User: Fold these one by one.
Assistant:
Number 1:
Amino acid sequence: MRSAVGRIAGTASAFEFEFVVTNAKAVKRGDYVKVWNEKDGWILAQVSEIVATESAKSAEKGMVGKARVIGKREGGKMITPSTPFIPGENVYLAEDSMIAETFNFEKDGVYLGLLGDSSVRVTINPNFLVQKHVCILAKTGSGKSYTAGVIIEELLDRNVPLLIIDPHGEYVSLKRPNKMAENDFGVKPKSYADKVVVYAPPTSPFLSEADKELSLENRNLSPEELIELSNLRSPSAQALLYQALRRLENYTISDIIREVEKIKHSGKWTLIGALSKIESSGLFKDKPTDVRELMRRGRASIIDLRGVEPTYQTLIVSRIVSKLFELRKRGEVEPGMIVVEEAHNFVPEREKVVSTNALRAVASEGRKFGLGLMVISQRPARIDKNVISQCNTQIIMRVTNPNDLNAIKKGIEGITSEMMEEIKRLPPGYAIVVSPEIEIPIVVRIRVRKSAHVEATKVVESEEVEERVEKIGELDSERKKGFLSKIFKRR
Ligand SMILES: Nc1ncnc2c1ncn2[C@@H]1O[C@H](COP(=O)(O)OP(=O)(O)OP(=O)(O)O)[C@@H](O)[C@H]1O
Ligand SMILES: [Mg+2]
């Protein structure tokens, strides 16, 4: 056994203890240590703090550590000791094998990265990860898409069917191997070119770069969808649309245009113009893309939505996701996972968009039918809380915006105030992972990618602008205390 790094001193309970540091070079905050418990044997704990002290009476200088008890794995469950630790017991650094066993990191699990600064591999059961939903939340540039890429690689290695909603076309680089040197993670470069198929709608300026064109069925678009797509604001044109649709059943867009042409009303031309524009987008076809093809074993179908109008984006997501869920319920596609980047645009918190219902349905019922969801967002405060709370695995990277921090605090069980502080300071590539499989939140250094990662290019960094505006708001409320702060609190 390794030599001791400390000795329990002062008061100790079954949940935490203080220890005199006897080897200051060997132990630091965040380290995992083990201590003998009279009744329960070796127990894992984590150093939460180390402080330098000087005793007033004896002028004795020294380091004192504080540790939080994690527990031990027994019969598959994490248990905490039933009796306190005894002052005088030695504190040792825990072996990697003990840490892995206590946290239940399975040998064949999805490899996310390394635990803190240790060399313990953090792995999660793939079935749990896929079926019980995942969210990845962090401010822009902290490594969300990179981490999502890591999970996608791991799932592709296990042939899990994946559908990726990709508003910035950044997952296309899965086709290329990463150019990297030796690394601490034991990861080798790999291309997923044989497993990735990129789809783009005909309205995309990047269609020529896609493997296949994506189209949707031209039948039975709802009046709300048609109004949304054409941005039809005129009340009389909207009324004419409802009038025409009342007379139609199982209709195509051409059928509606023909019906509207029959109406004697001068307002009909605006409507015909709007409908013709939708028809000429080429997105809606008699023989559309078969949604079954998008969810196949050993394949990731990427829907590249770069440069596609937001209303078309939400409609595409809504149609594909709801159809896929229907097929999955009937067992016509295999269990798999839907990955949604920029999820705050597809299931926003405050308003409802065309794709809201479809994604909410998968979030709340998908697990019953083996359809998993991975949502990724840089605005935790702007994404539907119900969807976040349905995610059993929560991966949080650096967040600094107070509203977003608040959303995380509310949405994630078992997150301590120390951890909230940690979230503000996480370096890029580090994440806090919360999962019932692991039982307590852990810090993970996300592994390097096997395939290439391309940072998304965004025209405007909206979050930074929003943050600035919010900051000004906070300053104001500080200044005017009372009145404004009440309003802010009520939100
Ligand atoms: N685990 C990691 N290892 C090495 N580099 C990383 C890691 N995570 C992120 N990076 C690097 O950090 C940069 C930002 O990462 P990423 O594109 O994933 O950010 P993001 O959170 O998705 O940002 P955005 O909100 O703008 O989409 C990338 O250049 C990436 O290479
Ligand atoms: Mg990203």
Note: Residues 144-145, 456 surround magnesium ion (ligand 2) (CB under 6 Å).
Number 2:
Amino acid sequence: MLPFQRDIHPRCLEILTEHSRCVWRKAEALARASRYADAVDYEFLREASMLHDYGIVGVDAPGIYCFGTAPYLCHGVLGARHLREVDGVRYARHARVCEVHIGTGLTSEDVVRGGLPLEVRDYLPETLEEKLITYADNFFSKNPASLCEEKPWARVCESIGRHGEGALERLRVLRGLFEGTC
Ligand SMILES: [Fe+2]
């Protein structure tokens, strides 16, 4: 399933696979219970969920067995770049998910204001599948001790709230889309 499995530390692969599976299950459950149930590409949702964090293999995060050099924040663009290198047509939509799923997405203003190590542009989820995976991802950490423990809504808000009111508002909009409440 993962195009670069051989380059990944075995523990990182376990964490990545388990985390991604949790995100997939939540994204699929949200989709099927939502008003968009008939419009979602479920096979793509599964594939993209399993690949969305692939870029962590290139970051410096030894706590989750990632021994690359890039800042953690770069895992989205790194994953997208790798997927496009493997097959830019086959993985075009998957690469987009990698790029836009960080937090609730990032605006060019977020990149500038935060001095983030990214090209200045928007990284915002647009399609249903991008939004589902981005939203579902916020409920799970990659902490090996609590991989598939779903975070309560208050903790999700607390984490996203640290990145400003814009990020929190995007979270509320995503919740409204898929859970019918803000
Ligand atoms: Fe994730």
Note: The pocket of fe (ii) ion is lined by residues 19, 23, 52-53, 137 (CB under 6 Å).
